């Protein structure tokens, strides 16, 4: 379903070269919940950004549902993401002038969904992440973990086929994290969603079907999760 | 050294009232490494912001080294922070146009330290957080955990008497987190620094001398850390 072949990403800063991704090949099945684990700076966010088409690789191929993502034009990538992808960012990226509910409903506006339907979906997702009582708060009226949960609700509101999650529970306590991951796992089973979650937390990675370990831009190890 | 008495913070959003801090009283000794633990939304960041004078409480008193912080004017609070405080933010707050080294050196410019000295201190701290090789990267050329570590180095560069740390390792893997906390603990012992660290991670809280548990804006529990 997702086929990654010989993926490389080299950044240049001044005269130095950084091999953020150093030859990644991997296949991810449809409906799979896949965790990518590694230390700070190992290449996790870079890999996710490539897969979501947010940044081009230096070389290599990424096929999603048979379609080559590398080399698509910007408008094609935007259309692809709008139709198929939900993205949970490492640094939230909420719109500061919109409330929690409006932030969650926003992706549905781009899909031409009616206002009544958007509100209904957004409120349902805010309930699932425990934020119903905070629906009218703006981001600066929310705690760090609450902002993170708004980002999670927003990514899920379009019922995406693929969810890319970059450290989705980095700002949450372990009880809330476990609740969120259990919810995401259950939703993905119901809707056959593919989830690719980056995390530095081994303990949380065990919620996934498969754990891919990455170090210095290379895959070092692949193992099964606890609930596979 | 830090005396908190009957601290309350009530936020208003539309017609609703949020009791972010609901009666906090606590004494923190000089040189103590104190962890504040609680779930998402329990009031941790709010408490830290009050202690650093970044926001006024609704009522209550905060005395630091005998001096009442509540009610000070903005310029007095700015001067107090510049002289005595290092703050590690939950969302990094780096200057996007400056490199890692320049971001770390910045607080020293406000203290009138010479350029040679600033560079020397900044590089020393970047070495301690494992970022020497990334000193010339701007924030958008750094991973999430690397940005967090720049924030940590910046807070420590002025040798502050008090370090306020809001989830300082939320974006770091457990090995890097343990290294960072061990380093912070060692520095605080050497310089008799007081560290007040907010974290949702029980495991990391054990690096502290004392663990203060907070829930719905109230203290529920105080216990000793493992290394006290
Ligand atoms: N400016 C504000 N206006 C309204 N409510 C606020 C504001 N700031 C915080 N709150 C609310 O106060 C409560 C405590 O927030 P706080 O940021 O202290 O939580 P926290 O313990 O740091 O949580 P986290 O672990 O998620 O960062 C939350 O319910 C939050 O929504
Ligand atoms: N735009 C860029 N320019 C230069 N170097 C970059 C850029 N983006 C990332 N890097 C570097 O590439 C490496 C991998 O970064 P990446 O963000 O993928 O790490 P990560 O595994 O997500 O780390 P973390 O757990 O800290 O978020 C890091 O060494 C980082 O400094
Ligand atoms: Mg990252
Ligand atoms: Mg917080």
Can you characterise this structure?
2 copies of one chain form a homodimer. Chain A is of the alpha/beta class. The first copy, chain A, is built from 7 helices and 10 strands. Chain A has a 6-stranded mixed sheet, with helices on both faces. In chain A, strand 7, helix 6 and strand 8 (194-199) form a beta-alpha-beta unit. The model of chain A has no long low-confidence stretch (mean pLDDT 93). At the A-B interface, helix 1, helix 5 and helix 6 of A face helix 5 and helix 6 of B. One adenosine-5'-triphosphate (ATP) sits between chains A (11, 13, 18, 20, 38, 40-46, 90, 200) and B (134, 137, 140-146, 171).
Provide the residue-averaged pLDDT of chain A.
93
Distance between the termini of chain A: 18 Å
Radius of gyration of chain A: 17 Å
Helix coverage percent of chain A = 25-40%
Largest sheet of chain A, order of strands side by side? 6-7-8-3-9-10
Tally of contiguous helical segments of chain A = 7
Low-confidence stretches of chain A: none
